[in-house]
Amino acid sequence: MTEYVKIKTENGIGKIEFFHPQSNSLPGHILAELAAKITKAGEDDNIKVIILKSAGERAFCAGASFDELIAIDNEATGKQFFSGFANVINAARKCPKFIIGRVQGKAVGGGVGMASATDYCFATKFASAKLSELAIGIGPFVVGPAVERKIGTSAFSAMTINATKWFDAEWAREKGLYTEIFDSAEQMDIEVAKLATTLSNFNPEAMEGLKKVMWQGTEHWDTLLMERAVSSGTLVLSDFTRNAINKFKTK
């Protein structure tokens, strides 16, 4: 299968689904399409609530595309790539509709950032999470504000520092990354559909107002996340990072 981002609207529910054959990793064009689809869904009066999901039964999202990371050869290209994550998070933040996350499997780096950018996140017990950026010489600079907002400074610091550790789904639920976890994707999907259907019948103006309240204090993220993208784009050029990425690719 080839990579894609698609949206399906039914009964007031907009389902945004992405896929990439490399464990749902996120190359630049997928990030751009995700940001555009989220923004478009937010502007569509026929959509009352959004579900953000990935395809497949295993990984929810493996984070940044190593192929694109290793191809970055200057700071401008680095900033452009990492700004893709910033654009997705900011699109979700500014979207006037509630976004329900559906995390069926492991989430790494940018995948943790995407889950953090949703407003209510369901997951299975298989949805371990890891912020592995420090292990390749970068750091979760761009996704950091979204993750820290969701799970707090202490938990974010733990994930950032212990960059090779998988934090299990129960830990992630306790810290607030996930709201509910289930034994299977089938059980999860029943509850995702139930909440989405309920929200699709609520007052859109009330939900929009509540979302603004919930995200209050993040208005500076348009600037902040782009500044973070510059930091990541510079660090990815280091010999340490390039060697580390090549080692990961050959495992």
How would you describe the overall organization of this protein?
The model has no long low-confidence stretch (mean pLDDT 97). This protein has one domain: Alpha-Beta Complex (2-enoyl-CoA Hydratase, Chain A, domain 1). The chain has a 6-stranded mixed β-sheet, sandwiched between helices. Strand 2, helix 1 and strand 3 form a beta-alpha-beta unit. With 251 residues, the chain is an alpha/beta fold. The protein starts with a strand and ends with a helix. The chain is built from 11 helices and 8 strands. Helix content is 50%, strand content 15%.
| Global mean pLDDT | 97
The largest sheet is: 6 strands, mixed
Shape label: globular
Let me know the CATH homologous superfamily. 2-enoyl-CoA Hydratase, Chain A, domain 1
- The share of residues in helices is 40-55%
Short description:
Helices cover about 50% and strands about 15% of the residues.
